[in-house]
Each structure stands twice: as structure tokens, then as C-alpha cells.
Specification:
Blueprint lengths: L22 H15 L32 E2 L2 H6 L6 H8 L9 E3 L4 H14 L1 E6 L19 E6 L6 E5 L4 E5 L4 H8 L4 E2 L12 H7 L16 E8 L2 E4 L12 H5 L8 E8 L1 E2 L3 E9 L2 H12 L7 E5 L1 H6 L8 E9 L5 H12 L9 E4 L26 H22 L1 E7 L4 H23 L10 E10 L2 E11 L5 H18 L15 H7 L2 H14 L14
Parallel strand pairs: 2-4, 3-4
Antiparallel strand pairs: 1-2, 5-6, 6-10, 7-11, 8-9, 8-10, 12-14, 12-15, 13-14, 16-18, 17-18
């Protein structure tokens, strides 16, 4: 847990307090961003400081037996009140903490979790498991209604050890509160890696990844944390839950599958056995421009069905490529990469480049080789508000895209300060429906953005709507859409909610999933309720009744009690 104010996390946005840009830095960055995008507010705004917040007083106090692991100060309650979606960052920036938890608990062992859940059950308190707080779907927010006497946020980050490493089976038992960088640091002496690097890697936890079925950095094969879990242990209000550690099993429905993606509605995940990989020695990457996005998508489909299994196969449309300074102007860009711990990858990438040439791709320079590959994690601390010039001429599209990918959460805080709306929605669809799906979603999203922003859909200063593929499967892609638009100062949350609703309606109507890797939370519930089978909802509700009879676990996510 961070304690020093110089290194602790912001109470409202992404990253650490020490990385917050000063007003002078924001004012210096604003003209370049406005020139680049064609919009942004005339004035730079600053976040409401912590000492100016007016939080509602805590409704409950922890019992003496738990007082040593509980906090009720303003920093703890504010910093655990919201996730990291655009609407969360905006509300935190403006000091709008409408539903702060009453108590923040920091258990250091499973016995603490058991006692916390007993207290919540007996006292009628909602219990919200909290990993790194990087939810972008309202998964950690204390919006639980009036049926509870209070809310306890259970921060798991004190339980962050790699407890045991089985080098023979290449697996490890790890506590759920392990943050991405600390987890990898503990595995490094064994020359092993979990090889799971979501964009939130720097500040998210293993337990959070499991609870939300998080997607990682790699485009094919082991795309989600699901693929890396060997067994899971959790504490529920009804008692312990632990599955048998096995490489695979056909013994009925998987108990792990019920906990993976449960979003804290069934219990608190405390540890898991996870599959590890050797650290890669060989890496090669190449940027491949295309004149046509759908032709590039056809190339990606062939790659996804080829059995080559590229580690990176991100397709950026021309607007996304331009915004991230990745490739040549006016062209879509495929960011293609291969890696291995056991053999050179020159052969696979050459075959892949022949595939993309057949669809009109124009491969650039292949970079990389044999080396100790670095983890694709962000540099800790402040990230420049202006993207680098490198790559604007297409000289290093992979490096430029990677910088933009890692800098995006930091840059969004700057966007809020200068009046730029910036958020995303993501989904997945099968290849046979992708063309029509993409067209209808883009049309609906553009219309929603234009209506919410009161801005022309085309021309100088118009909003930007971009698309990229984050993951690729033999049967379909996972398209990820980004919206950049002029924000309505003071009304950003309502503005984004209008855009998100239009996009979500289009996604569901066209047969996509409401989320491929961002989870359901509270924000996606209206569309998730329409996507899932009704009988499944009844079965999940029955499971919750058995594990959480008093319905204290993260009310409002996935199902209503």
C-alpha cells in the first residue's frame, strides 16, 4: 500500500501524485494537442484538490478487532470511490465523489478477509473487492442503493506475494493482490513470466484480472487470463472455495470458470495457481501499411486462421494510425510481431509478410532479433502530454504505436484538463459478420458523437472515431473503438453516457458482445442483461444465493440479488 504522498496514487485519475502535470506543463501541452486534434477548451482546468473535497461522513466504524486494517480518511475513501473510466476520471477531477465507501480495509491475510465478510454480513454492509481500482465499467464503485447500512472497500494489495513456484510444471501460486510489475519482479529470478500484460498492467492485480476475465497484450493464443489460470482460491461469505490444481479436467462444469469473471459478486479471490512461460529470447516486429482497412482485415483473418500465432497482430484504421503517430498518413497499419523462448522467429514472420503482401500490405523494416525481451509495461511516472515525433514518417511504426498504447491512460488525464473527451468501447464479432457490423457500429457511433457534441461529423475540428483490433481469433476479431471529441465542460459525464449508449445499442443490435475484455460492472449491466440467456441469469442468481446468502458481495454487478 502506498503511504508516502510523493509516491501514492492520485485520488482522482491515473498514475501517481508525483506524475501529475503542473498547470504550466498543461498550458504548454494544450496548444499542440488542440492543433493536432482541431479542438479542446480555451482554458486549462485543474483537478479539485484532496483538501477541498466534501465527502459524506462515514456511516459506520469498523469494530475494534478490525480497526488496525481499516481506514476512513478522505484520501482512502476518495481513492477507492471510482474506477478509471473517462466518466470516473472526470468526476474525480471535478471533486464529484457521490458514493465513497464508508470504510477501506487492507487485509494482510485470509483470516482478515474472513472477518471482514463476517462483519459485513452481520452488519448489513456491502463488500466491494478492490484490486488496483482500474475498472472502466463501474466495477469498484459503491453505487449499491439504499438497502445497505454502509459500504466496505476491501483493498487486496497487501496480499501480493508469489508464494510458491513450481518450475517443473512451470506454474506459481500467487496472492490475488499482486500488482503486475511486482508479480513479474518476483518471477524474474526463476526466468519465468506470467506473460499477461493488459494496458493497466502497472496498477492492476492478479485477482482483478481473474475477477474481470482481463485480456492481455498478446493478440492470439493465450489472450485472456482465463487461459493462464490453473486453479483459484476464494473466501465467500459461506466459506472457502478452492478448486483442485490440474492441467485440465472434464469433471463437470469448471469451478474456476464460475470465479473467473465473477467480478466480486460471489466472494473475494485470495490466490491462484497460474501457468507461467519462459521469457522470450527472440522477437521480431514489423509495421505493415495498407491502403484499405477491409483489405487489411482480410489479411488479419488469414493470419488468424493460419496457425502462425503472431504475438502481436493489431490492426489500426487510418485515423487511429494518424492519432497515435504510428504509420504513414491516410493508411491503415498492421502492427505485426512474433516472439519465442525456444527458436528464432524469422521463418514465421516471413510467411506472415507473404500473407499480408497478398492482400495489398506494404511491409516496412523488420526489427528485433535475439535478446532478453523486456516486459511491455509502461515507464513509471509522468508521460509526456505530446506524443513523440518518432514514427510520424513511418520510420518506427511499432515503437510509436507501443508508446501511444502505454501513454494513453496518462494522456487522458491531460485531455480532461484541456477539454477533450476521450474514451473507448470494445467488442468481438465473427468474421462473416464483421464488415456489416463495423459499418453499422461506426455509423451509429458517429451519429451519437455528433448529437452529443453538437459538432459536424466531418471536416476540420470534427470529432475522431477510430477502430483497431486488439485480439484476433480464427473465427473473428475484437474491434476496439476510440472516441476523441470536444468536451462540454461540466457536462462531460452526461455527454459520454449519451455516446456510450448509442454505441452499445448498435453493438448489441448487430450481434456483438457488450464487452470483450473490459468486464460488465455496473455500467454495462443494461446491455449485458439482454446478451445473456435468462436461464443462465437464474442459475447465477442461485449460485450467489448459496455463496452469499445476505447478498453483500459487490451488489449491482452481473445480477441483482
Amino acid at each position: 500500500m502506498e503511504t508516502a504522498s510523493s509516491s501514492r496514487l492520485k485520488h482522482w485519475g491515473w498514475g501517481r501524485e508525483s506524475g501529475q502535470l503542473t498547470r504550466e506543463q498543461l498550458e504548454a501541452a494544450a496548444p499542440g494537442i488542440r492543433e493536432r486534434l482541431g479542438f479542446g477548451g480555451d482554458e486549462v482546468e485543474e483537478p479539485v484538490p484532496l483538501d477541498a473535497l466534501e465527502l459524506a461522513a462515514p456511516r459506520v466504524e469498523p469494530p475494534g478487532s478490525l480497526a488496525g486494517i481499516c481506514r476512513t480518511d478522505d484520501y482512502e475513501r476518495a481513492s477507492h470511490a471510482l474506477g478509471k473510466a473517462y466518466r470516473d476520471v472526470v468526476r474525480g477531477f471535478r471533486g464529484r465523489f457521490d458514493h465513497p465507501p464508508d470504510v477501506v480495509a487492507h487485509p494482510v491475510e485470509e483470516a482478515d478477509v474472513e472477518r471482514l465478510l463476517e462483519w459485513c454480513t452481520d452488519a448489513g454492509l456491502a463488500a466491494i473487492p478492490y484490486g488496483g481500482g482500474t475498472s472502466v465499467v463501474g466495477g469498484v464503485e459503491a453505487r449499491v442503493g439504499d438497502e445497505y447500512e454502509g459500504v466496505v472497500s476491501i483493498d487486496m494489495r497487501e496480499m501480493g506475494r508469489v508464494v510458491e513456484v513450481d518450475e517443473t510444471s512451470r506454474a506459481a501460486r500467487i496472492e490475488a493482490g499482486a500488482l503486475g510489475p511486482a508479480l513479474e519482479d518476483q518471477l524474474r529470478p526463476h526466468r519465468l513470466t506470467l506473460r499477461h500484460f493488459p494496458q493497466s498492467f502497472e496498477f492492476s492485480t492478479l485477482g482483478g484480472w481473474i475477477a474481470t476475465r482481463a485480456g492481455g497484450h498478446f493478440a492470439t493464443l493465450m489472450t485472456h487470463i482465463d487461459d493462464l489460470v490453473e486453479s483459484v482460491r476464494a473466501i465467500t461469505p459461506a466459506g472457502e472455495w478452492e478448486s483442485r490444481r490440474l492441467p485440465g479436467s472434464g469433471a463437470g462444469p469448471s469451478p474456476d470458470r464460475m470465479l473467473i469473471g465473477s467480478e466480486g459478486a460471489l466472494g473475494v479471490i485470495t490466490e491462484a495457481w497460474v501457468r507461467l512461460q519462459e521469457r522470450p529470447r527472440w522477437k521480431l516486429s514489423c509495421g505493415v501499411p495498407f491502403d484499405d482497412f477491409l483489405a487489411a482485415a482480410a489479411a488479419v483473418r488469414e493470419l488468424g486462421q493460419s496457425g502462425l500465432h503472431p504475438s502481436n497482430c493489431r490492426l489500426l484504421d487510418a485515423t487511429e494510425s494518424e492519432v497515435t503517430h504510428a504509420g504513414p498518413a491516410g493508411k491503415s497499419l498492421l502492427v505485426l510481431g512474433f516472439e519465442s523462448a525456444h527458436h528464432p522467429v524469422d521463418g514465421p514472420i516471413e510467411v506472415a509478410l507473404e500473407v499480408v503482401r497478398g492482400h495489398g500490405g506494404q511491409p516496412g523494416e523488420v526489427r528485433g532479433g535475439e535478446r532478453a525481451a523486456a516486459d511491455p509495461q509502461p515507464t513509471r511516472g509522468a508521460v509526456r502530454a505530446n506524443p513523440p515525433a518518432e514514427g510520424e514518417d513511418g520510420s518506427d511504426p511499432v515503437g510509436s504505436w507501443r508508446h501511444a498504447f502505454l501513454a494513453a491512460p496518462y494522456l487522458r488525464d491531460t485531455f480532461v484538463a484541456i477539454g477533450v473527451l476521450s474514451d473507448t468501447f470494445e467488442t468481438a464479432i465473427t468474421w462473416d459478420r464483421f464488415g456489416e457490423f463495423h459499418s453499422s457500429v461506426m455509423e451509429a457511433a458517429r451519429r451519437g458523437v455528433a448529437e452529443a457534441c453538437g459538432a459536424p461529423p466531418d471536416g476540420p475540428g470534427s470529432p475522431r472515431l477510430t477502430c483497431r483490433f486488439t485480439h484476433v481469433y480464427p473465427d473473428g476479431p475484437a474491434p476496439y473503438y476510440t472516441v476523441l471529441a470536444p468536451a462540454k465542460r461540466g457536462g462531460e459525464v452526461e455527454q459520454w453516457d449519451e455516446i456510450k449508449a448509442a454505441a452499445a445499442e448498435a453493438v448489441i443490435a448487430a450481434g456483438g458482445t457488450i464487452t470483450h475484455h473490459h468486464a460488465v460492472g455496473r455500467d454495462h449491466r443494461p446491455w449485458y442483461d439482454r446478451q445473456r440467456p435468462d436461464r443462465f441469469a437464474e442459475a447465477l442468481r442461485a449460485a450467489k444465493g448459496a455463496l452469499d446468502p445476505a447478498a453483500v458481495m459487490n451488489p449491482g454487478v452481473l445480477i441483482d440479488p
